[in-house]
Amino acid sequence: MIPWFAVSLAVLIALVGAMILYIYGRLGRRPQAQPSFALPVAENETAIDLDIGQILLDHPHQNGVALISDSIEAFVARAHSARRAGRSLDLQYYYWKDDLTGFLLTRELVMAADRGVRIRLLLDDINAGIHDRLCISLDAHPNIDVRLFNPSRARRDRFRRGFEMAIRAFSATRRMHNKLWIADGRLAIAGGRNIGDAYFDAAELSNFRDLAGC
Fold first, then answer.
1. Integer Cα distance of 101 and 94 in angstroms
2. Choosing a second label site near 105 at 20 to 30 A (CA), which of 15, 49, 81, 116?
3. Which of 68-82, 115-129, 160-174 has the highest mean pLDDT?
4. What gap in Å lies between CA 126 and CA 149, rounded to an integer?
5. Which H helix or E strand runs over 120?
6. First-to-last C-alpha distance (Å) of the chain
7. Residue 164 in 3-state DSSP?
8. How far apart are CA 54 and CA 72, in angstroms?
9. Is 143 a residue whose pLDDT tops 70?
10. What domains sit in the chain, N to C, each tagged with a CATH number?
């Protein structure tokens, strides 16, 4: 005969397992958005088209790469390309800090969107989740589309967010570390820099060093 405590323990384990599966299912649901695609590149439509057009004529069927090691130049390249963009800005980042340089580049995005530039921003949710108000505010602009990679359902409560991460530890570790800034489908800035003071020599305590390709 099976002892009563063994039966009770089995029932308890089953109930806990069912509860975890139920919570996982609730937290695991993701809102689905319509697919989005890059805008086609046109000739002589934007300032960047004109900037690069003559270079392409002089070097047909070729691409060019410029290396950027200076942090200030890396910031200026992004800000300047945002100001010159006339068609689209397609951006991917692991995180976008809500600090001085993050605010300044956010301001450049909003000004570009106000001119009619279509902006798509993809952020990894592991850090973006703590800045939901900023993401929601940007996404409210008719020309800005903000999406999150592998988002958590728990948005406001850090305890619930941590619990969700714990019960889906395998899928939660799938993070997006891409750092990419594409202006008008013509100019791409790629490298290891996220958006934040420490990546542009603006942090007081310590700063990163990186090499970007443009």
1. 15
2. 49
3. 68-82
4. 9
5. strand 118-124
6. 74
7. helix
8. 27
9. yes
10. 60-213 (3.30.870.10)
